[in-house]
Protein backbone atom coordinates (compact mmCIF):
# COMPACT_ATOMS: atom_id res chain seq x y z
CA UNK A 1 0.00 0.00 0.00
CA UNK A 2 1.33 3.42 -0.92
CA UNK A 3 2.18 6.16 1.53
CA UNK A 4 -0.69 8.24 0.11
CA UNK A 5 -3.17 5.41 0.77
CA UNK A 6 -1.87 4.92 4.32
CA UNK A 7 -2.16 8.66 5.01
CA UNK A 8 -5.63 8.77 3.49
CA UNK A 9 -6.79 5.90 5.71
CA UNK A 10 -5.27 7.68 8.72
CA UNK A 11 -7.05 10.95 7.84
CA UNK A 12 -10.38 9.20 7.39
CA UNK A 13 -10.01 7.13 10.54
CA UNK A 14 -9.25 10.23 12.62
CA UNK A 15 -12.12 12.10 10.97
CA UNK A 16 -14.69 9.39 11.74
CA UNK A 17 -13.35 8.96 15.27
CA UNK A 18 -13.93 12.69 15.78
CA UNK A 19 -17.39 12.51 14.17
CA UNK A 20 -18.31 9.74 16.63
CA UNK A 21 -16.75 11.56 19.59
CA UNK A 22 -14.28 8.71 20.01
CA UNK A 23 -10.54 8.66 20.65
CA UNK A 24 -7.77 6.22 19.84
CA UNK A 25 -7.96 5.11 23.47
CA UNK A 26 -11.67 4.38 23.07
CA UNK A 27 -10.89 2.12 20.10
CA UNK A 28 -8.15 0.35 22.03
CA UNK A 29 -10.47 -0.23 24.98
CA UNK A 30 -13.71 -0.99 23.12
CA UNK A 31 -12.30 -3.16 20.34
CA UNK A 32 -9.39 -4.65 22.31
CA UNK A 33 -6.74 -3.44 19.85
CA UNK A 34 -3.12 -2.86 20.75
CA UNK A 35 -2.37 0.80 21.52
CA UNK A 36 0.68 0.96 19.25
CA UNK A 37 -1.25 -0.64 16.39
CA UNK A 38 -4.04 1.94 16.58
CA UNK A 39 -1.44 4.68 16.81
CA UNK A 40 0.19 3.35 13.65
CA UNK A 41 -3.14 3.43 11.82
CA UNK A 42 -3.78 7.01 12.93
CA UNK A 43 -0.33 8.31 12.00
CA UNK A 44 -0.29 6.58 8.61
CA UNK A 45 2.49 4.07 9.18
CA UNK A 46 0.16 1.06 9.03
CA UNK A 47 -3.19 0.01 7.61
CA UNK A 48 -5.26 -2.81 9.09
CA UNK A 49 -6.34 -5.89 7.19
CA UNK A 50 -9.76 -5.89 5.54
CA UNK A 51 -11.48 -7.84 8.33
CA UNK A 52 -10.26 -5.27 10.86
CA UNK A 53 -11.35 -2.36 8.63
CA UNK A 54 -14.83 -3.94 8.59
CA UNK A 55 -14.80 -4.12 12.40
CA UNK A 56 -13.70 -0.47 12.64
CA UNK A 57 -16.35 0.63 10.12
CA UNK A 58 -19.07 -1.09 12.17
CA UNK A 59 -17.74 0.52 15.34
CA UNK A 60 -17.80 3.98 13.73
CA UNK A 61 -21.18 3.41 12.00
CA UNK A 62 -19.78 4.02 8.52
CA UNK A 63 -19.42 2.02 5.34
CA UNK A 64 -16.11 0.25 4.76
CA UNK A 65 -15.51 2.47 1.74
CA UNK A 66 -15.78 5.57 3.92
CA UNK A 67 -12.52 4.55 5.59
CA UNK A 68 -10.78 3.93 2.30
CA UNK A 69 -12.00 6.54 -0.19
CA UNK A 70 -12.32 10.18 0.78
CA UNK A 71 -15.72 11.54 -0.18
CA UNK A 72 -16.84 15.14 -0.53
CA UNK A 73 -18.80 14.93 2.73
CA UNK A 74 -15.84 13.81 4.84
CA UNK A 75 -13.58 16.31 3.15
CA UNK A 76 -15.82 19.36 3.39
CA UNK A 77 -18.04 18.82 6.44
CA UNK A 78 -18.31 22.05 8.38
CA UNK A 79 -20.35 20.82 11.33
CA UNK A 80 -18.94 18.20 13.67
CA UNK A 81 -22.35 16.77 14.50
CA UNK A 82 -24.21 14.95 11.70
CA UNK A 83 -27.67 16.04 12.93
CA UNK A 84 -26.56 19.69 13.05
CA UNK A 85 -25.10 19.40 9.54
CA UNK A 86 -28.35 17.93 8.24
CA UNK A 87 -30.45 20.64 9.88
CA UNK A 88 -28.15 23.38 8.60
CA UNK A 89 -28.47 21.97 5.09
CA UNK A 90 -32.27 21.90 5.39
CA UNK A 91 -32.29 25.53 6.57
CA UNK A 92 -29.96 26.50 3.76
CA UNK A 93 -32.08 24.70 1.17
CA UNK A 94 -35.35 26.18 2.43
CA UNK A 95 -34.39 29.60 3.72
CA UNK A 96 -31.02 31.20 3.01
CA UNK A 97 -31.46 33.85 5.69
CA UNK A 98 -28.77 32.34 7.93
CA UNK A 99 -26.32 32.12 5.09
CA UNK A 100 -27.11 35.28 3.20
CA UNK A 101 -27.24 37.34 6.41
CA UNK A 102 -29.18 39.86 4.37
CA UNK A 103 -26.87 40.84 1.57
CA UNK A 104 -27.26 44.50 2.45
CA UNK A 105 -26.28 44.01 6.12
CA UNK A 106 -23.35 46.14 7.25
CA UNK A 107 -20.26 44.72 8.94
CA UNK A 108 -21.16 45.93 12.45
CA UNK A 109 -24.60 44.33 12.29
CA UNK A 110 -23.16 41.05 11.02
CA UNK A 111 -20.64 41.07 13.88
CA UNK A 112 -23.49 41.68 16.33
CA UNK A 113 -25.32 38.62 14.92
CA UNK A 114 -22.18 36.54 15.31
CA UNK A 115 -21.71 37.77 18.89
CA UNK A 116 -25.30 36.80 19.76
CA UNK A 117 -24.78 33.33 18.33
CA UNK A 118 -21.59 32.92 20.39
CA UNK A 119 -23.47 34.04 23.51
CA UNK A 120 -26.19 31.46 22.83
CA UNK A 121 -23.55 28.76 22.42
CA UNK A 122 -21.92 29.76 25.74
CA UNK A 123 -25.30 29.60 27.46
CA UNK A 124 -25.92 26.11 26.04
CA UNK A 125 -22.52 24.99 27.30
CA UNK A 126 -23.18 26.43 30.75
CA UNK A 127 -20.42 29.01 30.43
CA UNK A 128 -20.75 32.48 31.94
CA UNK A 129 -21.40 35.20 29.41
State mean pLDDT (0 to 100 scale).
81
Query: What is the CATH class name of the largest domain?
Result: Mainly Alpha
- In CATH, the homologous superfamily of the largest domain goes by the name lambda repressor-like DNA-binding domains
Question: Could you give a short account of the major beta sheet?
Answer: none
Which H/E pattern describes the elements?
HHHHHHHH
Strand content: under 5%
**Whole-angstrom Rg:** 19 Å
How widely separated are the two ends? Answer: 51 Å
Give me the CATH fold name of the largest domain: 434 Repressor (Amino-terminal Domain)
Oligomer: single chain
How many structural domains in the coordinates?
2
Supply the number of helical segments. 8
Beta-strand segment tally: 0
Alpha-beta classification: mainly alpha
C-alpha geometry:
elongated
Q: Would you give an account of this structure?
A:
The protein has 129 residues and is mostly helical. It folds into 2 domains: 3-76, 434 Repressor (Amino-terminal Domain) (Orthogonal Bundle), CATH 1.10.260.40; 82-124, no CATH class. 66% of the residues lie in helices and 0% in strands. It is built from 8 helices and no strands. The chain has helices spanning 3-19, 24-31, 35-43, 50-60, 72-76, 82-94, 97-100, 107-124. Helix 2 (24-31) crosses helix 3. The chain is elongated, with a radius of gyration of 19 Å. It starts with a helix and ends in a 5-residue tail after the last helix. The mean pLDDT is 81.
